[in-house]
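Title: Request for sanity check on 4-hydroxy-tetrahydrodipicolinate reductase prediction

Description:
We are preparing a figure and want to confirm that the structure record we downloaded matches what your pipeline produces today. Could someone re-run it with the sequence below and paste the raw structure tokens into this thread? We only need the token string, no images.
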Amino acid sequence: MINVAVLGASGRMGATTCRAVESAEDMALVAALDAGDEVAMAVRAGAEVMVDFTVPSATEANVHAAIEAGLHCVVGTTGWTADALARVDEHLKERPELGVLIAPNFALGAVLAMRLSAAAARYFESVEIVELHHPDKVDAPSGTARHTAAGIAAARATAGVAPSPDATTEDPDGARGAVVDGIHVHAVRLRGLVAHEEIMMGNPGEQFTIRTDSFDRVSFMPGVLLGVREVAMHPGLTVGLDGYMSL
Ligand SMILES: NC(=O)C1=CN([C@@H]2O[C@H](COP(=O)(O)OP(=O)(O)OC[C@H]3O[C@@H](n4cnc5c(N)ncnc54)[C@H](OP(=O)(O)O)[C@@H]3O)[C@@H](O)[C@H]2O)C=CC1
Ligand SMILES: O=C(O)C1=N[C@H](C(=O)O)C[C@H](O)C1
């Protein structure tokens, strides 16, 4: 049995994760914690793995507290900067036996969309990303869109591909969206949506679109449970669930 603590347990993802852990035959939910609770409570409850679905402003401190306490971490919360990841990496040098998985998206379709778009992007002149979410989401662009853009930008840089053509010189209202690692990212917030992403690529006379849709938060659970099962076998910091998959 793997003893699991969930941080952010009353939230949309935390509550879904608690139910998934309780339903898993090889796991026990030993602590369901929220704002105001301390990671020490998870340790006292016998947790081995902490799952974090909290808020971007809290997640880094939670992970450092968990490392200090000797817990493996599976993190779905967004808002991670390169500097924040580097600090976790550095902290883990003091506890080389621990694993930390930080994954911007646990849905299989989203993981595949990130990998496939990075593989395809070098073959197209233009690439843009549209991410679409429920209106209660606090951050934009989504963590998934940021990670997707980073992967595409790295692949295009390696292949020596020119920036996407764009003749826009007048855009006083920001209609062209955010620019993440040189890739335009457009964020839609609409009641009825859960989590969706479209990566659009274009060449003269053709378009290639990769789309992933999470219609329900249960879509993230196989990935979260995979993370919980595997994290102790992957010491150090892993960013992205694809690090635990054969892709
Ligand atoms: N990686 C993935 O696959 C996915 C990632 N996400 C990400 O997960 C995060 C959570 O999303 P979601 O569940 O929709 O958000 P919610 O707002 O529904 O849940 C966040 C929860 O965290 C709690 N919380 C806030 N601060 C702390 C803290 N310091 N310690 C413990 N708990 C805290 C909140 O409590 P209170 O309300 O009392 O403040 C709330 O219960 C977001 O960053 C989102 O982008 C979402 C879906 C999938
Ligand atoms: O807040 C959400 O809902 C989601 N957040 C993650 C993100 O920012 O990419 C993952 C998924 O898109 C759902």
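Thanks, this matches our download. The longest strand covers residues 195-203.
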